[in-house]
């Protein structure tokens, strides 16, 4: 790879005003490059010079500098270089010296000087010139295509692949592979935009895969309509003339079987969508009805999924006609989404595509994509696009160990995507690439389906997140119909299972029993208190066997955040506390008078005082102290609804049976606020937020939202940094809603769901949601 500029001494400064390079200037990766070229900034160069990056061996990258010898004066550099000496190679004098502990080598060729940190590169160049090996004709042609008034980058695609493989174990998504020999780019950097405009050149008679597109009409690519927001990226090829395409295949020596020609003749766009789990191939038709009719003889109905028919493909290798542009050797299944025919190896991949399409979680609808698309030509032979964040996360898994940190710490700085557009002419390939920074409104959010996987059996409990303290990854905890506890990773792969004899009283509680940041999971079954570690192993002295039946989910209180955990269990009308040694806590004793405890106890702290709230089936509320004694006495004729109690506005808050809000102060004063909620209403609250749901009316503080009629779960509150969101699910319509605290529905919602949501927040201002879907499916959504 070659970088050329009219003034190399100031080349590094060229990048300093761009937001992407500013954001990453402190990263080791960019510092290493800056150090490599810092030496060259000491030259008084005013004429054109180039910096070359070359792959050396399996791990190393060499940096070389070429400029006019008139612009290099070693005497001026005498204070910064040391150990200067010379040796002869193939009759040519080579200067060797040290600069900041780095060994550099310099050699003069006529009017030019070459300096490199690789002795091998210098020796190779001396031999090339001595043996009169001509310069690469394609490179010479590429040099003629660029604008001398702007910095330029030249990429030899084969060498670039070698450079790429220094960082990544696999060269998947290597954009220039087999496209051209050399491509020369003019580089344009604005504050929030990086643009490369160039021409690709190949040796004469060197056939490349894009030659298959010669003489094809350029089109506006529409594949983004079915590209989900959890995709890594896509590539799309315009092939409106299938007959001409077959002729090119024959001419270039590729197979050109015209089986299923009637179907392919109705196709004008061929694309591949890349995902971490399984790629999809998408064919767009200009006449979908005609294309579907011609496909009938080779497909059979497999299943109906959300009103989309999925078919088995009888000729699973039919898409090989598009190789090497697009490769999917096992196109086992297909579904039609509008004008698009989507092929996959497995049914689940098509189901995921359908879900995201119905959720409108697709790339074509995103403002960021539309803005970047407007920076490119309206039509082209090829369009490629990478969703930056997803691509970066995927490439971290493909990075060599020495390069992983450099990738993971990269700050994309609102550069949400990279677009690459290619047009093919008879002799040249025209390439344009754009990265555009489009800052997201701090008050806006975007939801995407991060993953979906299916369970072998239905889960008896609502799946929950469990943090792996070592990796900080959130795994999925559930219990199947055989009473087996299971822990799955975010891809749905089994980590461990554990046999139990009873059903878990969910939810479970994640906590740190030893105060050493190693998290455990605690839960109760009907006769045991369990604590397990991240590997599913019991934490001694648990499990604790109890004779009497446990009737509510386990609660863990740590009053002073000092690790003195209290394991609170309900047994009918009794509330008991155990310590982490598995012993009953002496001095704590509470039982109700008239009915059983109806909900798990709740710990609320106001100032320095602790309150334990216990509800009876009769509706009565007890407000206890740490020892189980009544702490707050109150009098009221109101009948409580049985909904949970919350701390809102400094008071214990819930509702009455006749649909009003009731509040009790620490002093025992009772206040009733009329609300006229219907009998089957719900309530949730935090310090400053009061949420109620009465039939289809959701009220968030003073804001009323009229929902469609349905069967709704109780509203939940999600805390994300300084924001609070309200989420609830219509299990009848299978829709999950998320509102902000002002009653605004978050972008992209509602999404598909068949249950309430489990969630966790990340420091990066993201929230992960987990819900149950159909057919034992688990859906993971991500809100940015």
TrEMBL record:
<protein>
    <submittedName>
        <fullName>Uncharacterized protein</fullName>
    </submittedName>
</protein>
<dbReference type="InterPro" id="IPR015943">
    <property type="entry name" value="WD40/YVTN_repeat-like_dom_sf"/>
</dbReference>
């Amino acid at each position: 790879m070659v970088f050329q500029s009219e003034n190399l001494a100031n080349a590094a400064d060229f990048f300093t005003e761009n937001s992407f390079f500013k954001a990453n200037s402190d990263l080791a990766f960019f510092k290493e490059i800056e150090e490599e070229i810092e030496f060259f900034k000491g030259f008084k160069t005013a004429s054109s010079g180039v910096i070359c990056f070359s792959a050396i061996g399996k791990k190393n990258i060499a940096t070389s500098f070429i400029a006019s010898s008139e612009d290099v004066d070693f005497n001026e550099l005498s204070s910064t270089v040391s150990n200067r000496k010379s040796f002869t190679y193939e009759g040519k004098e080579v200067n060797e010296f040290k600069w900041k502990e780095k060994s550099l080598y310099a050699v003069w060729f006529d009017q030019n000087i070459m300096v490199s940190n690789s002795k091998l590169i210098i020796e190779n160049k001396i031999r090339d010139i001595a043996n009169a090996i001509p310069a690469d004709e394609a490179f010479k042609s590429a040099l003629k295509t660029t604008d001398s008034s702007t910095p330029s980058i030249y990429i030899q695609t084969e060498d670039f692949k070698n450079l790429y493989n220094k960082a990544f174990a696999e060269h998947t998504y290597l954009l220039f592979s087999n496209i051209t020999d050399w491509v020369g780019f003019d580089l344009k950097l604005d504050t929030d935009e990086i643009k490369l405009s160039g021409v690709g050149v190949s040796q004469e008679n060197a056939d490349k895969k894009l030659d298959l597109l010669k003489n094809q009409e350029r089109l506006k690519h529409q594949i983004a309509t079915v590209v989900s927001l959890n995709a890594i990226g896509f590539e799309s090829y315009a092939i409106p003339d299938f007959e001409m395409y077959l002729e090119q295949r024959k001419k270039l020596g590729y197979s050109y079987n015209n089986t299923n020609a009637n179907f392919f003749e109705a196709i004008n766009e061929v694309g591949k969508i890349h995902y971490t789990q399984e790629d999809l191939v998408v064919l767009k038709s200009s006449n979908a009805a005609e294309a579907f009719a011609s496909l009938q003889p080779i497909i059979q109905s497999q299943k109906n999924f959300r009103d989309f028919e999925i078919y088995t493909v009888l000729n699973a290798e039919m898409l090989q006609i598009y190789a090497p542009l697009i490769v999917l050797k096992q196109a086992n299944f297909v579904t039609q989404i509008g004008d698009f025919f989507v092929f996959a190896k497995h049914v689940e991949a098509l189901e995921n595509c359908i879900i995201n399409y119905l959720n409108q979680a697709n790339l074509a609808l995103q403002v960021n994509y539309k803005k970047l698309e407007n920076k490119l030509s309206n039509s082209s032979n090829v369009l490629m696009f990478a969703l930056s964040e997803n691509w970066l996360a995927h490439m971290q898994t493909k990075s060599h160990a020495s390069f992983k940190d450099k990738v993971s710490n990269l700050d994309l700085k609102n550069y949400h995507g990279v677009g690459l557009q290619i047009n093919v002419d008879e002799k040249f390939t025209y390439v344009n690439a754009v990265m555009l920074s489009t800052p997201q409104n701090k008050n806006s959010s975007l939801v995407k389906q991060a993953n979906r996987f299916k369970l072998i059996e239905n889960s008896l409990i609502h799946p929950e997140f469990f943090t792996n303290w070592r990796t900080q990854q959130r795994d999925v905890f559930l219990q199947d119909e055989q009473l087996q506890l299971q822990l799955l990773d975010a891809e749905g792969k089994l980590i461990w299972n554990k046999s139990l004899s009873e059903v878990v009283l969910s939810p479970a509680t994640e906590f740190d029993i030893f105060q050493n940041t190693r998290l455990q999971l605690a839960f109760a079954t009907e006769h045991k208190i369990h604590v397990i570690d991240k590997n599913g192993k019991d934490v001694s002295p648990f499990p604790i066997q109890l004779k009497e039946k446990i009737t509510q989910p386990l609660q863990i209180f740590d009053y002073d955040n000092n690790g003195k955990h209290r394991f609170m269990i309900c047994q009918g009308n009794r509330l008991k506390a155990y310590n982490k040694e598995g012993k009953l806590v002496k001095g704590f004793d509470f039982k109700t008078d008239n009915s059983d405890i109806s909900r798990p106890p709740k710990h609320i702290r106001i100032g320095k005082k602790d309150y334990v709230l216990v509800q009876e089936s009769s509706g009565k509320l007890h407000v206890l102290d740490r020892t189980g004694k009544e702490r707050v006495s109150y009098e009221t004729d109101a009948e409580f609804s049985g909904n949970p109690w919350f701390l809102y506005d400094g008071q214990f808050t819930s509702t009455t049976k006749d649909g009003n809000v009731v509040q009790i102060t620490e002093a025992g004063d009772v206040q009733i606020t009329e609300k006229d909620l219907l009998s089957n209403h719900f309530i949730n609250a935090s310090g400053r937020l009061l949420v109620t749901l009465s039939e289809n009316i959701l009220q968030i503080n003073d804001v009323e939202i009229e929902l469609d009629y349905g069967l709704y779960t109780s509203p939940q509150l999600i805390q994300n940094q300084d924001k609070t969101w309200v989420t609830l699910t219509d299990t009848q319509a299978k829709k999950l809603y998320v509102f902000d605290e002002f009653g605004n529905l978050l972008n992209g919602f509602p999404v598909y769901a068949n249950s309430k949501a489990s969630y966790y927040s990340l420091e990066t201002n993201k929230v992960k949601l987990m819900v149950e879907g159909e057919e034992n499916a688990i859906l993971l959504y991500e809100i940015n």
